[in-house]
Amino acid sequence: MLVKPSVAGTSWRIRVTNEFGTRPVTFQRAYAGRQSTGANVAPGTNRPLTFAGRSSVTVPAGRAAWSDPVPVKVSDAQTQRLAVSLFVAGASGPMTWHAAGFTTSYLSDPGAGDHTADRADTAFPHSTTSWFFLSEVQAQRPATSTVVAFGDSITDGFFSTINGDDRWPDVLQRRLNERPSARGPVSVVTQAICGNMVTRIGRTPGGCTPCDGPPALDRLDRDVLDVPGVRVVILLEGINDLGGGNATADQVIAGYQEIIRRVHARGIKIIGATLTPSAGTAFGLYGTPETDAKRRAVNHFIRTSGQFDGVADFSAVTEDPANPGHLKPAFDTNSSVGGPGDHLHPNRAGFLAMGGAVDIAQIQRYALAPAA
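The chain above was modelled as a monomer; its predicted structure follows.
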């Protein structure tokens, strides 16, 4: 599995997860190296991972495990990727996975045995754009200030370019890198799940509930508050509650208020991102006038309530002024596979506009301020 870290580093830990499994999973061997091309690992970089000093680890259902640090040099986080290889011994049962990674990773043949130490791509003939069992990669370096992009498919990069690293959090990371601070780097960590919701209301009948992950209210501790060095959160969620679950605007706002309260209680700043338009979407309730009215009410709260520490007005930069409620036509295509868009997910151009709408000076001021 290939992962582009947000910061450079020489030592790394990985987190393997069986949080949504139904039986123990044994990771018999694991390696981490630096990608050269495709599934090839750069010579001299592929290192065995250990877990509490052991070469294998069995992770019970509902649990996760951290590896020990492993030395792999990534000198340029913008161009270099880590290659993490896992060998699962025996049957795993249902896998915990990140379905929409928009990054190519590679698989060996079924039943081919342990190829974690292999450097050549001939051992990994199959490709995927998902990540399996790997939930986090963490640089072991002096304290880095972290911004968490907390969201759903529009933060996850749905309709972004495969291997293009052009999700809006990627754009934000590049902008921060172009404006370095003497007080240290700022890392943008993406914690997004396609279909995710703020509230616990759930999908309307026929929706893809198992795909959505735990709602933001339930995953806030794991995916935001427990992230090392987190100083700022940018929250972009709610359209799935309105268009996929038929929540009211007040229910989404109440969810925001609980998240704001819990984030502020930890001394962390939170930026509210306005919901991008979805009129014309053919599935669920996303495309209805009622959903657009609720979206506008939610955005009014984000912009005017004063409860967020700042606003990233993604709606303002993506909505078509000639056709209110709709994405700009230039943003309504599919950059992943080509062809038309779905009127819900912005394309690469839309993500560039969104990443450019974040107030970099404000992010750096919050992220690099002395700890309270």
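Residues 2-111+119-137 form one domain.
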